[in-house]
Amino acid sequence: MVVFGWITIMLVTDPSSGLGEQWTYGAATWFVLLWLLFAETPLVRTQVAVVVAFATAVEYTFSLGLKVYVYRLDNIPAFVPPAHGLVYLCALALGRSPVVHRWRVPLVAVALSAGAAYALWGLLGTDRVDVLGAFWFGCLVAFLTRGRSRLLYVGLFAIVTYLELLGTWLGVWEWQRFDPTGLIEIGNPPSGVAGGYGWFDLAALTVAPVLLRAWERLTQIGRPER
Question: How confident is the model over 78-117, as pLDDT tens digits?
């Protein structure tokens, strides 16, 4: 709930903010992220670091570079990189909550059904055809049905769909109608954007254990054996 509330505050206040306010929001968002990480394990902290690094690289490449989507001030707002870490933490918290575990089967089914309806609407129910969203929904299906952390992706579907709908509605960012090739049509936002975001989480789940093992080996070098 902390993350839902904080992200809502950031998105609602951003449309009336300048660069100075964005930097202030960015510092505050980093504080919230680091505060929440104090209670987490080294593995989760590393996973969040991977998500922030990966997502920030994607932001600068696909927003500033390729203009697939653009922010209101044609920049990457300072609160966006740490917000990616908050989104991951939120999805993780939802996925490991007792309620979600108890209802895991119907919740996965709800996420798949709602995602399918949204993707179908993006293809057939609007004059702005959303091909990219349908493709990303296919990715979400794979994460929800074949992934090792399915409940993480249930939480991801909830938080990412919410923030994308709110952010684009408020005009904080806007997706272009076509990808850089001009061939793939995109909704604003893409319907299955949670499936695209899922690659950040997959990177975290895959890379973080490797980084931790490498760090442990590195810190063992030079230590005397007992």
Answer: 999 999 999 999 999 888 888 888 998 999 999 999 999 9
The answer to whether residues 108 and 150 touch, using CB atoms and an 8 Å cutoff, is: yes
DSSP-derived 3-state class of residue 197:
helix
Return d(Cα 75, Cα 82) in angstroms, integer: 15
Q: What percent of the chain has pLDDT over 90?
A: 73
Please, what is the Cα angle at 153 between 150 and 155, to 5 degrees?
115
In which region does residue 19 sit, left (phi positive, over 0), alpha (psi from -120 to 50) or beta (all else)?
alpha
Q: Which residues contact 55 (CB under 8 A, 6 or more apart)?
A: 81, 84, 200
Residues 189-215 as b/e (b if ≥16 CB within 10 A, e otherwise) read: bbbbbbbbbbebbbbbbebbeeebeee
Tokens of 22: 């964005």
Contact 222, 177 (CB under 8 A): no
